[in-house]
Amino acid sequence: MIYTAIIVDDELDAREGLALLLQQDEDVKLVASCDNGLNAISAIDEHSPDILFLDVQMPQVNGFDVLRSLQVVPRAVVFVTAYDDFALKAFEVQALDYLLKPFSDSRFFKALNHAKEVVANNRPERKNLVESLLLKEDTSTELLEKQLDDRFVVKENGKIHIL
User: What residues are paired with 159 via a beta bridge?
Assistant: First the structure.
């Protein structure tokens, strides 16, 4: 199966680096590389990629604005950014993964393989806030800022509680 991908990042080096990594996977075809959010919206609507590698912080139209503007959101959205501040928000808008720059090649390929698996299984797998917390392995208690349908999610000693 050939998977189509689009890269969106305002930094040339980041776009080129991602493109070089994608070239190493024969099953992935890069159909567009966009340097801003406006170009990204057009390219995504035109090509309907399977996988979208999307930067968060871009001038004028950020990554979240791009997703809100799309007619159809790609099945696998992987945020690629230097800012960890937006991770929870990324999963709230159905991101499949969140790559924090700088990342290793192995971390990139882990995200790519997960995206390919989701697309291949034709299941719009999306992590939500609770699922992303299950991946954390600490024993602290924390109250999350996100309110879900008049419920709060609390993590205590590695377990998730919905109140």
Answer: 156
